[in-house]
Amino acid sequence: MSDSIHHKISQDTKNSILQKSAMSCVKCAKCVPTCTIYSINRDEITSPRGYLDLVSAYAEGKLPMDMELKDSIESCFLCTTCVTQCPMSLPIDFVIERARVDIAQQYGIPLYKRFLFFLLGKRSVLNLVFSLGYYFNPCLFKTQNGFKKMRFTLPKIQDRVITPFHAKSFLQTYQGLIESQYKKEEQDAQESHCNNNKAYKAKKVGIYIGCLSNYNYKNVGISLLKILNKLGIDVLIPHKQECCGAPAFFSGDIKNTTKLIKKNLDYLIPLLPDLDALLIPEATCAAMLIHDWNHALEIESEVFAINNTEYFEKLKILQQKTFMASQWLHDYTNLNAILQQCDKQALTVTYHDPCHAKKVLNIAKEPRILLQNFRLKEMKNSDICCGFGGVTMQSEKYHLAKTIGDRKAHNIAESKAEIVSAECSACRMQIDDSLSRNKVNAVFQHPLELVAQNLEDWNCLDSKNM
């Protein structure tokens, strides 16, 4: 492609993505008070409407992509609070994502990110890395107040809490079709009820596990398997599924992102006709497939003049059957009725709403209803961002992540809950780190882990035969 043609495509892209929202913004400022980064900086250049003005000026050639603008754009947590507050629902997150692609093209992807994104695209290599981490666990990590930390300080890791390691990942342990041991009971119950309740229709689902639940929080996937087993639902584990691409996408590495998207779509689409749903127990991954894969393909199409029509069509098919796990379990199974027959638990739980769940996918009530047998104590500002923010925020701007994380830890402590829960392992990483740093006596558990524990009471199964 000639430089002149590439320049024209690039300029058209900027006009269509970077300027469109800026021209629609009425400067009402409803987005500003709730903006995560603005709550730290109190600076208009790191507020949503400030971002729109800056990137619009950049797109018009009035402002260079210098280090100051780069720093401002990379300071956004991409929590999407601004999108929910905007009267016009302007896709400010999309604008930031697009601008970060230009940053990556101009300044390049840092070496440590390139290495990470390479690993995320090479499942066999990553399996080995995490397996070695497990076996060298005693040499590398120490336990401090119930959390693992490095025995020595690394520049990008610092004194943060380290996620667990396992000898084998979830996808190495579970593959292919796993039939429910309770399928016969479910079929008998369906025949006895003889109604059109949609809760009894689904017979087989797939699981898209997500990297953190695959490698670090393996019990999340195991818990989902336990729940589906007791519901009489067969499970297919597509063993060749790839990373959703979120770390690369939020860092502006659009090529690695769309490479993973296309590999996933090519692999998953042929499996869908035999599945009632594809369940994702992770808010970030679910939002990527349902929401952000569209953004990534659109950016690639416009910036590099690639015709992604085939993959947009495949994505539409995928999205029709893709759900966050708690939403599907709540809406399409009789799990709620079964849980009503289970024992009440003495444990107190406070729930954190992941940004990608509540603000992007509008999922908040479903996990709370599934936790009905626990004593729920709502923390203050449960839907405020935990401060994870992505790879850049967790490395180059860790001080910002800590500031927001400390606020979340304070709210959890004030709730006096014994357990904090959220359907997102990225939030889990950030919250565990914040709890440890602030010495808050609470333990993180995924809602599916809590539900699976609740279902261990075999009397719960009596409700199937009511």
Roughly what is the average pLDDT, rounded to an integer? 90
Structural class designation: alpha/beta
What is the count of β-strands? Answer: 12
Please give the count of helices: 26
User: Which sheet architecture does the biggest sheet show?
Assistant: 5 strands, mixed
- Fraction of residues in helices? 40-55%
Low-confidence stretches: 1-14
Please write out the topology.
Blueprint: H1 3-18, H2 20-24, H3 38-41, H4 48-59, H5 67-73, H6 81-85, H7 92-107, H8 111-120, H9 123-135, H10 137-140, E1 141-144, E2 147-150, E3 161-162, H11 170-173, E4 176-178, H12 183-193, E5 204-207, H13 211-215, H14 218-230, E6 234-237, H15 246-249, H16 254-268, E7 277-280, H17 283-304, H18 309-320, E8 322-324, H19 325-332, H20 335-339, E9 348-351, H21 355-360, H22 365-370, E10 375-376, H23 391-395, H24 398-415, E11 419-421, H25 425-437, E12 443-444, H26 447-455
Parallel strand pairs: 5-6, 5-7, 7-8, 9-10, 9-11, 11-12
Antiparallel strand pairs: 1-2, 2-3, 4-6
Helix pairs in contact: 1-4, 1-17, 4-7, 14-26, 16-17, 16-18, 17-18, 24-25
